[in-house]
């Protein structure tokens, strides 16, 4: 499969059809693995890195999951190609900076990606839409078990899988979910949630910003520790926490509908107004406004059929996607103009927000909104 | 106004990226310059580098204290000074070489110091047998000490069986 094919097809995880997809954008699990007999990529000399790569890549390519996959050496990809893969979460920023001596293999559906010679010899990750950490883990576990038969992984009876960074030692596993929490941000409960989650050994991170400044009201929840707990235990705990967060977000949404419908309508209405009329827009502004459009759809202010347009715009307005689609390198101002243009065009058929039909449990919302 | 903060990582440039992360209720702050922030990937919304960075900053000192500055890994020639620079180890054997310093570090950053998760199938078989051997040897010693020769003979037979199956 060629890079053009990858770029032309949106990742499966972006389709937004997984369980709890309104609030959980995606679930991701990654394993870090190393070959016992070789120095870690950051310390290995160029020649050794090349050797490691040739030892690992054929084994990855022959996996049944990687039939008809996209498999490429990093030096063969342009900076823009790499950036698109980063925006789709298929490679890390660190891997994007690599050239000769590193490679990436991505399956056809773009739900499984294996980086060779990133920080560790192998960084494999599975990624799916919505909340399905257990499925994602199972897929990755299977791939790992197939690879360990052919590759001699560095493993210590007490410390588990050995990794370049001591923070990953043990399971070498990082599991995470990306969640969209506009109501918890609007109702200023988000910091409480973050603190509560942190207390039980999990990390919450905003996309770019921190706390309430998180861009697009998107947060990533992940395990922090990798040693001393079984993979399944980590996944189960994370899953429970995410389910709680979903519950809190849903409650916050209902509360906003009942008590602060005016604020809610104002936010969604402003987002709609700016997105459909602006002529210059940064990716940060676009993300923040699209977040309210997404919330608007979740709450029934827009018909559900318009959801894919918004989901697509989240990705298409990212800098590399924008430039890839226009086939040219652009200055910042040009990008912002182009971004605004694409959004206006895509939202041409979009109806105005309508507060009429409130989805289930929306009782009380027919009352007049507070006029504060 | 106080002097501009310098980068916690390279310690030369002026810091322009200020990170705060709460891990288990403890607030950690890191100040970085633009280029260090980029190379560390902390601006990556999806990356996990921040935690590594935060935890990695104190790690080098820990290893230096425990194993001395001069020690090098016989497997790959990695030294603690290199760890200080990168926050990463050189090879799998480094975990033995710098084991002492790493143990307290691992204790601080993880739930436990014993891996309880997945074990590669190949190793699982070896580990299982070794554990069984150890248990039987202990049982044998106890049986002999208790002058319980009948059960000692039984255990000895089991041990022999296990040992021959290992060789097969």
Describe this protein with a few key phrases:
heterodimer, A: 372 residues, alpha+beta, 8-stranded antiparallel β-sheet, two-stranded antiparallel ribbon, 10 strands, globular, disordered C terminus, B: 168 residues, mainly alpha, 8 helices, 8% strand, elongated
Would you tell me the structural class of the helices and strands of chain B?
mainly alpha
Cα separation of the termini of chain A: 57 Å
Estimate the strand proportion of chain B: 5-15%
Give, in order, the helices and strands of chain B.
Answer: EEHHHHHHHH
- Strand tally of chain A, please? 10
| Largest sheet: number of strands, sense, barrel closure of chain B | 2 strands, antiparallel
Uncertain regions of chain B: pLDDT < 50 for 5+ in a row? 44-52
Written as H for each helix and E for each strand, in order along the chain, the element string of chain A is HEHEHHEEEHEEEHHEEHHHHHH
| Strand residue content of chain A | 5-15%
Main sheet makeup of chain A = 8 strands, antiparallel
- Biggest sheet strand order of chain A reads 2-3-4-5-1-8-10-9
* Cα separation of the termini of chain B: 75 Å
Q: Regions of chain A with pLDDT < 50 over 5+ consecutive residues?
A: 361-372
The radius of gyration of chain B is 24 Å
> How do the strands of the widest beta sheet of chain B line up side by side?
1-2
Q: Biggest interface: chains and residue counts?
A: A-B, 65 and 53 residues
Number of strands of chain B: 2
Q: Identify the overall geometry of chain B.
A: elongated
**Tally of DSSP helical segments of chain A:** 13
């Amino acid at each position: 499969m060629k890079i053009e094919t990858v770029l032309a097809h949106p990742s499966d995880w972006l389709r937004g059809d997984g369980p709890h997809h309104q609030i959980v954008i995606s679930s991701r699990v990654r394993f870090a693995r190393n070959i016992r007999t070789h120095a870690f990529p950051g310390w290995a000399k160029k020649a050794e890195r090349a050797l490691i790569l040739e030892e690992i890549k054929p084994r990855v390519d022959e996996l049944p999951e990687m039939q008809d996959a996209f498999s490429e050496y990093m030096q063969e990809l342009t900076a823009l190609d790499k950036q698109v893969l980063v925006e789709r979460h298929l490679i890390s920023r660190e891997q994007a900076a690599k050239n000769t001596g590193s490679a990436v293999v991505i399956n056809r559906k773009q739900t499984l990606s294996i980086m060779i010679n990133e920080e560790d010899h192998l960084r494999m990750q599975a990624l799916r839409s919505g909340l399905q950490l257990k499925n994602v883990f199972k897929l990755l576990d299977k791939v790992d078990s197939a690879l360990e038969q052919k590759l001699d992984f560095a493993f210590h009876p007490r410390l588990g899988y050995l990794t370049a960074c001591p923070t990953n030692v043990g399971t070498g596993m990082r599991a995470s979910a990306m969640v969209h929490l506009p109501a918890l941000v609007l109702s200023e409960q988000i910091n409480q949630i973050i603190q509560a989650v942190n207390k039980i050994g999990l990390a919450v991170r905003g996309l770019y910003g921190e706390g309430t400044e998180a861009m697009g009201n998107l947060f990533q929840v992940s395990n922090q520790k990798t040693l001393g707990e079984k993979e399944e235990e980590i996944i189960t705990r994370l899953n429970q926490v995410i389910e709680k967060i979903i519950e809190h977000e849903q409650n916050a949404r209902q509360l906003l509908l009942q008590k602060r419908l005016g604020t809610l309508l104002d936010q969604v209405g402003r987002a709609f107004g700016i997105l459909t009329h602006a002529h210059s827009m940064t990716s940060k502004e676009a993300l923040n406004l699209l977040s309210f459009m997404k919330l608007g759809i979740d709450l029934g202010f827009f018909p559900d059929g318009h959801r894919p347009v918004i989901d697509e715009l989240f990705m298409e307005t990212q800098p590399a996607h924008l430039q890839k689609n226009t086939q040219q390198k652009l200055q910042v101002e040009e990008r912002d103009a182009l971004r605004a243009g694409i959004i206006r065009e895509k939202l041409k058929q979009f109806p105005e927000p309508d507060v009429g039909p409130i989805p289930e449990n929306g009782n009380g919302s027919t009352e007049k909104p507070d006029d504060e | 106004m106080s002097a501009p903060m310098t980068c916690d990582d390279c310690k030369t440039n002026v810091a322009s990226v200020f990170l705060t992360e709460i891990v288990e209720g403890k607030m950690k702050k890191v100040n970085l310059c633009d280029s260090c922030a980029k190379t560390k990937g902390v601006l990556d919304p999806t990356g996990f580098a921040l935690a590594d960075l935060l935890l990695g900053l104190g790690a080098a000192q820990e290893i230096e204290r425990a194993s001395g500055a001069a020690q090098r890994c016989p497997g790959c020639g990695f030294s603690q000074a290199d760890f200080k620079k990168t926050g990463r180890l050189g090879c799998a054997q480094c975990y033995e070489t710098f084991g002492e310093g790493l143990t307290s570090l691992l204790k601080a950053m993880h739930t436990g110091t014993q891996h309880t998760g997945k074990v590669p199938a190949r190793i699982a078989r070896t580990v299982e047998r070794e554990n069984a051997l150890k248990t039987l040897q202990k049982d044998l010693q106890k049986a002999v000490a208790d002058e319980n020769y009948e059960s000692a003979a039984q255990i000895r037979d089991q041990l022999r069986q296990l040992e021959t199956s290992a060789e097969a």
